[in-house]
Design brief:
heterodimer; A: 290 residues; alpha+beta; 2 domains; B: two-stranded antiparallel sheet
Chain lengths: 290, 351
Amino acid sequence: MKIFFSRLYLLAFLALTAGFIFLIWNLTFGEILEEYHQRKKATEIVKDREQKKKKREEITFQKVILEGDETVKHYLGYRILQEKRIEGHFHHIDFDVGPDKINYCIECHGDIPHDKVKGIRAFGNMHASFIACQTCHIRLEGVAKSGIFKWYDRTTGEIVASPVRAGVQPGTYKAKILPFETIDGEPQRIDTQDKIDFAREYEKNEQSLTEVQKSKAKKIIHKQVSKKPYTCADCHQREAPLLSFEDLGYPKHRIDTIVSTEVIGMIKNYTQLYIPRLLDPGFGQHQSKQ
Amino acid sequence: MLTYQTRRSILLLFLLLFGMAFVSAANSESADVGNCLLCHKYPGLSRVDEEGRFRLFYVNEDIFDKSVHTRVKCEDCHTDIKKIPHDTPKKVDCFVQCHIVEPSSEQKFSHKEVAKFLAASVHGEVAKQGNPKKHPEDLPSCKDCHDNPLYRPLSFFKRVRPGISETAMGRCRVCHKKDDFIFRFYNHVTTRLHKIRNPKNIAEVCARCHDDPELVKRHDLSTRAAYSYGETFHGKAAHFLDERIPDCLDCHVKRGESVHQMLSHNDPQSITYKTNKAKICANIECHPKASPKLADYKIHAEFNFEQGTAQYYFKIFFIALTGGVLLPMMGIMFLDVLRRLLPNAGLNRKK
């Protein structure tokens, strides 16, 4: 027993000495090295900025918000609010949905792809954050039309239960809505592994392909894409909305909001400053003050 | 004589109008009277603008409700939005008059005074002599330093701690019946009784410009201010979130003045002017008995080549001496303990 405790004592002393070595290194030579690297980094930042000025980088929601490296922590005392910092953005954002690693359209088109139609571009991008591109851009007709839409996990791709729940802020879902098509009488998700692999293979080899090959590949990738995508009014209507909101797990009060006069009226360019909050009363009012 | 059906219609109309008035009144305290959050509650509401900048139009309502602007209506700042859906709005002018009435003067509230302070400060676009400064695009505007300021309430009941004192709130409820009012008033007052931002956050804000190597070079600044602050005792304590420690604003702004009235250290009116700066350290909340000499030490020393070659080598020598003595000593100690722990171990020991 005595030997055991003496060994234990020596082991603890050894760990303590190693800890001190680490600490002293960090505070002395480590500090000098750190300073050297910081100096080097500062020069690189200047160079990097100059390069960025020359070559405008592709901007995606994922790069700026979900994977952006500039984070700010607000030390409020009673809590720490950590969020991504967007230069010049006044309002706080604080949300975490994680990047969509499954949707292959965004690899070429980006995840804020709508920029043509001035009136609805931001709305299009907003919907793209929780609806897969295929939902609006592929019109399934005839036997292929299943009428089934499900949620898939943005990270794993698995079909998951509806993320629309009380306490979850609308649009901050870690899942997206995806259409299912009927093949051989069976409904199956529209983004099959073959399609994903083909699109990713194309993106990988794009530089080495001839124009004819590129054109052919693009035609295959976009084979199902409709020239006229579904419009806002196809879902925002009471009679026969494209998406079955109930099946997608939307509670009644949310469905009422989605197909409310406010939304439908706005879509029809109903211009009015004051929209009464009759159908969405109390939404977001803080449940607890602290 | 009114028929039964007409009377019923009038009654229904009356009830409907009464109901609408009630709902409107219930929401009248919310900033979102125009129901802007119908769309702006969605985080994905965004686009890339014509200049290629990412624009996010999302407003987190929960956080907004805990900010100092919680009662300001969206259209008070975004004044040109008159219809929904709206066109691309103008850039927000922070100096615009809003609908909040300042209770002591009963005038509509605005940040106009800040504009005057800022123009006369070291961050103003025109120098004191009246000539425009070089690189005005580098000088800060409101949003360079401020995002939406958040409440940082304090409780003083028995002891000072962050957060809200339910006991104090209970006292307020005796006279004031609206919980929303009490909550806001409590937050407003206690947030203003101390810094709205933690010293570390303040240093980070200043660092965005004052530690930017390009900007430091362009404006011929003598130091990376936030970095060198971080090297001091004050900076180290701020790093560990000490709230009592002085931050940039405590030393660079005359006590009792707005932080926007920051002056150059060459300005005789400035608190950092050579003949005034002793007052910074010797103020009642910091080192009241300090000799004026205390303020003479080089606060923003980086000990680098640019600021002083001798000091730099002096620093390197002492760091190397400390490491050079302590590391071998600890190394020997480590090996000694290792031998005691494993007395027979060896790499090439003969049997």
